[in-house]
Specification:
Elements lengths: L12 H13 L2 E11 L4 E4 L4 E8 H8 L5 E9 L8 E7 L15 E5 L7 E5 L2 E5 L7 E6 L1 H4 L8 E10 L9 E17 L1
Antiparallel strand pairs: 1-11, 2-11, 3-10, 4-9, 4-11, 5-6, 5-10, 7-8
């Protein structure tokens, strides 16, 4: 996870050299989970049938915990456990919007992000520029973690139990063979990033 920090422009050549040395050597960073909120259940979404999971925490409580601290954020983490083919659809995530569907635009305030799959089989496949090798064996879960903090700052009903709705959206130029996807080990995490200079 990357963090940003405002820095002023160097005013002397010595400061510029120190900055260059720092950038070349890098910095020690760490990401620590401060709090964890597991979903009540797993979720199986299907094309045309979104799935909604509920958490025992509100958006208001999560955003209060994060505050204005640029080093803190809320992430949604989950395992995709049964993906047979990764080229049929992609997923959209919506906060406190259980009526979201594949026609709900990503411009909605409740939109928390999306995810897609490159492939999910250990095989070679042809691509426009040659051969691609997909090193992920089928049958193993894929772990995703996404920053959802911006969506939590503007949800409807911020004081109710938080819900996340998973919507599968087919690629317009493909007829999907796989039609469902199960998410497991779903959790919201408050994470803290630290950069030591």
């Amino acid at each position: 996870m990357a963090t940003t920090q405002e820095t002023r422009e160097p005013k002397t050549e010595e400061e510029a050299n120190e900055r260059e040395e720092f950038l070349k050597s890098g910095a020690a960073t760490s990401v620590e989970r401060v709090a964890r909120f597991p979903a009540r259940d797993s979720a199986t979404a299907a094309l045309g049938q979104p799935a909604t999971v509920t958490f025992n925490v509100s958006a208001a409580k999560l955003t209060a915990e994060v505050g204005d601290d640029a080093q803190r954020r809320v992430t949604l983490a989950f395992d995709v456990v049964d993906l047979a083919r990764g080229d049929a659809f992609y997923g959209h995530l919506f906060v406190n919007s259980p009526d979201a569907n594949e026609k709900t635009p990503a411009t909605e305030p409740a939109f928390a992000g999306g995810f897609a799959f490159f492939c999910h089989e250990e095989r070679e496949m042809e691509a426009k520029e040659g051969i691609l090798f997909c090193p992920v064996p089928g049958g193993q879960p894929l772990r995703y973690e996404q920053n959802v903090t911006p969506a939590l700052r503007k949800p409807e009903n911020p004081d109710t139990e938080l819900t996340v709705t998973v919507v599968l959206v087919p690629f317009s130029d493909r007829r999907p063979q796989a039609r469902t996807m199960t998410l497991d080990n779903i959790e919201l995490n408050i994470v803290q990033s630290t950069v030591k200079q």
